[in-house]
């Protein structure tokens, strides 16, 4: 089996997501899809490590990732989960031309479609549709970041767990308790108590 084969349904999903941000002319679609490559990331492997320089802009065709960083004491802090149908890159590295501040780990065997940073830059210099796509996407990231910060400032751990369930309704069975606790900023033991209360309330 050729691991470099790109399935048509992966491309269709990617294009459908892009069209949610902007209308893309057919000739731009052809130019874009000609540049796409595929990489498979095995469960627990990293797509990007902290300190890496980003050279790819990727789209998750299949699988699941967590984005996290290490505190000064070595504690892992999960910022966000990314499942199929989302983009994946160290955007601070792209914008600032610096190394990534975060690590991107596959929580399942995953497939990424990607273009090189060089091809990404060429796209942005071409048709204005790509600028609209990037602008809309970064607006979405900003809103997501703001909602996350507000939750940590104004919600207790149980409320944050309920927000997690609403934000990621299909992921709780695919993510370990350790990683969920890291995302919520609590210990796995505290998460166990919260989950028990959550089940009791819902029954």
UniProtKB/TrEMBL annotation:
Which organism is the protein's source?
A: Fusibacter paucivorans
Name of protein: Crp/Fnr family transcriptional regulator
Q: Where is the Cyclic nucleotide-binding domain?
A: 20-124
| InterPro entries xref list | cNMP-bd_dom, cNMP-bd_dom_sf, RmlC-like_jellyroll
- List the Gene3D superfamilies hit by this protein, alphabetically: Jelly Rolls (2.60.120.10)
